[in-house]
Request: fold
Amino acid sequence: MLSSIDSVNPWLVAVVLNTILLGLAWIAPKKLLTPAGLFHAWFLAILIWVTLGWQGYAVVMFYFLVGSGVTRIGMAQKEAEGIAEKRSGARGPENVWGSALTGALCALGVGIINSGFLVPNPHSLIPNTSASLSTSLQSLLLLAYVASFSTKLADTTASEVGKAYAKSTFLITTLQPVPRGTEGAVSLEGTLAGIVASVAIAFVGWGVGLIDILGVAWCVLAAFIATNLESVIGATLQSKYTWLTNEVVNIFNTLIGAIASVLLAWTWITFIN
Reply:
């Protein structure tokens, strides 16, 4: 079945599939996306399907569905305390790209490599050298892609679970107790939930063949590093600069996670060689 899908023009499959899903989301009673968010998510999903196929699509859909689900945990309580996501968690364009811009750029990079634009004929110069370079770069981009969504899901889950269930929350820079929902606050419950979420989506990436089993470890470690650095940014810089919105911080968060995963993998490869 999957091979028959792969043989069809990917643009056609992507447009038809995501138009159907957009229509279902439009009429669904619970809105996971705003009208503008639906259009941007439609565009993003087409880009991911065309560049990474159903495998990359599975990762981003897992992030979206689980991320939307954890956002609604304890929603009534969070709304009463004034710490819930705006629009009852419905994602707008700024949320779509704040979460997925890094992953989209990684997917675009893989698409460019697969198109032959960078290496038109990898065997025409030095045998195996250009081909292996492209393969290595593609593997690192795929790792960065999965790591970016592992990071974002870890961050979303840690934040939402922490706001809903944390008994104690602490400012990451001073470890002083602060109210739930404070920028830069962390909790044991949220941190553990975030780790579980990053492991889950990393295994999705491994299960569909985008990364190897060692890549799962790099994604989880990178997500942990990036999520804590994001909390540091929230505690120290976000209140000082008006342009540093939650969505901009999310872009930095996923970018840090993607870069960290590549550096971890590169360091490991260098060490074992």
Confidence is low (pLDDT under 50) at residues 122-131. The first strand starts at residue 170 and ends at 171. The longest helix spans residues 35-71. Strands lie at 170-171, 185-186.
